[in-house]
Request: fold
Amino acid sequence: MMYWDIFFCFLKIGAFSFGGGYAALPLIQGEVVGNYGWLSMREFTDLVTISQMTPGSIAVNAATFVGTRLAGLPGAVIATVGCVLPACFIVTLVAKMYLKYRDMTLLSGVFEVLRPAVVALIAASGVDILMSAFWNHETFIVFKDINLRMVGLFLLSLFLLLKCRMNPIRVMLLAGVLEVGVYLLE
Reply:
């Protein structure tokens, strides 16, 4: 029964995660943390970190991670297939339709409307992840129990990415090295 739950959970995520990996994060969070309770919010934050550090799309990496955690290798395969299957079907269908109707103004209007919705999904997920990183529990009170080390690491990473135009991979590696260094010094 667990295999079916894993498969249908990620089939649903794969079918409704329009806009790519970041747009899928609220769906993954809602299903994996909210509906099924397979992960805590803290574990979900770790999932996002691991999914971004490994090659491939965030949704597929998240599916593989959750599937492995719940049911080992068979769970990883089932979750990944569930996540990828709708995309294969939808992309094939949309490509055929787009080639046939690409000159329609209605189609370009639909794409214009979807862009802000996708940005809102990404922003909402980002805020949830920031709150989880800055406060080590599900609920938070501003300036109470805030993890100043994580805030400092976030601000440093943001500075390196935006002002210094540092490669994101180097920023992640540097953040990891700094966190390990701080941990060893404690």
